[in-house]
Amino acid sequence: MRIAVVENMKETPLGLVGRALDGAQADVTIYRPYLDGILPSLTDHDGLIVMGGEQNALDDAAHPYLPDLAGRMLDFGHAGKAVLGICLGSQLLARAHGGENRVGGHREFGWVEITATPEGQSDPFLSAAGTAFAAFQWHDDSFALPPQAVHLARSGTVAHQAYRIGRASYGTQFHFEVSGAVVNHWAETLPQSMDAMHPGWREDRAAHIAAHGARADASGLALARAWLALV
Prior knowledge:
Layout: E1 2-6, H1 15-23, E2 27-31, H2 33-36, E3 47-50, H3 66-78, E4 82-86, H4 88-96, E5 101-102, E6 108-116, H5 118-121, E7 132-139, E8 142-143, E9 150-154, E10 162-165, E11 169-172, H6 180-189, H7 191-197, H8 205-228
Parallel strand pairs: 1-2, 1-3, 3-4, 4-11
Antiparallel strand pairs: 5-8, 6-7, 6-9, 9-10, 10-11
Helix pairs in contact: 1-8, 3-4
């Protein structure tokens, strides 16, 4: 199993997705186009994961590789290969398939309750987390669902939390890869960004991890393994 992972900025650990990849003994190649513009080829990989990032999905002027990355996600999906877009990745997947990107005004931060739609409850990926689960959020942007997308999950404040296009192209606005360990890593490496999103949360993170971490870890790992089963 050959998996390409695209990072869009530093400090984007694979977390629970990485644990699932290790368990599946996947051959993982990391791409960092924000540094060199290099993207994975369709022929060299069986699946594609696109991680989050601080930029918005339309920030082509500062990040000129973004249109090509969206196109590459489209190519993988059209080839029947599994695609996973997380946070910014989900916004780029929506862009690739004709969904409107909505920049700003959709802020969520910290662990948030996610509810599966009826379609999500029967989906081979989303259903692995159950009908309701907690997942970490760190975003201010959102998107309209592409015309062909199947809506899989929502939160109380942002409707479009997960969707599927075709056989196995998935976008999740939430960071199901994030564990308590990843949160602590971000608190050390991105303290100013975290404080700007939610002042005081970083200092109180131990209580948040205790309240939500174990449940979110279980659902996040289940989702990661379910996506890998579709590769």
